[in-house]
Amino acid sequence: MEPYFILALFQHGYKVRTSTLYHLLKGKRTSSVLLYGFLYENLRFFQLFPLLSEKQFNTILDELVKQELLCLMSDSRVQITAKGKQIVLEEGNHFSWIDHYRFGKTDEIIWRFLQFTVQVVSNLSYNHKNYIPLEQSPLYQKQIKLFLRSTTKAQLIGTVKKEWMQLFSQLTKDEANYFAQQFSGYQLIGKTSFQLMDNQADPFEQFLSKKEKLHHLLDIICQMPEDSFLKKLILPLVRQNENKSMSETWSYLEAQLSLEALAQQRRVKVSTIKDHLMELALTKNFPFEQFISKKTNQFLLEYPKPYQDWVYYSIKQIMPELDYFEFRLYQIQKLREERDFRQ
What we know:
Blueprint: H1 3-8, H2 18-26, H3 31-39, H4 54-66, E1 70-72, E2 78-80, H5 82-91, H6 100-103, H7 107-125, H8 138-150, H9 153-170, H10 173-180, H11 193-196, H12 203-222, H13 229-239, H14 244-252, H15 259-266, H16 270-283, H17 294-301, H18 312-318, H19 324-342
Antiparallel strand pairs: 1-2
């Protein structure tokens, strides 16, 4: 693993515990780990390295401290140094499109599905049936057959061609070529991603570059109109990246139930509902006002920023009745507002 990639995960500049970052990269799905990812803008790297060992991770950190790129505090937290920030700036590429939290579990499956769709439609456009399909699995074949039954042949061919042309126009030339050259179709066999990668780049750089391109493509597809063929094709697979139980809780929110009523409806503990809601608050269009009391809102409104430096137990000494769940939701809400304004 590239040490400077790990270094870039500290570019936010705050003093943090490294163990939580390790759990984030490994994919430990707890509210504290996900909240850490959100607070320090590293949530998109969730479960990016599921096989990363703690020993390997700590060896990289020790080396970064030794090079004075990270500073180790007396309480075991670390912070990036001025020298470290300069290195991050010089290194440049921080892979801004990678979003493993949103796409990571199914990104490769989705890409194979998209490739298979192009192959089927390409051969269909030439009335060619005698070819070896890229995918034999019912997972892919069943879905394609459903779409074939739901529309006319001419409409499907025209729609797929039109939508891919729209997609390519929104990608860089390098990205568009990278995907187009992987397509197989009538009398055409596509190249593998490995064949198209920069031979000068090391395997780690190639891995990140592949993720970067693919997640950019998926993000664009997800922003297409709801009735788009490609969006309808991949959305069920994109949603598999979400916590299934959390998604069920999300479906109850419109009813504006209390935490206790939500827990009763879902037949789970109130603490589980709170975990679900905190994760939903990180990315969804969340009704914060439904769960944050006016008293909490007024009190925290006066508390000095930055929000990332807030420590619940320290603030609770000033306001003993401060609820942890409300405190975290307020913190998430304000950071989301800040970031939306920044964009």
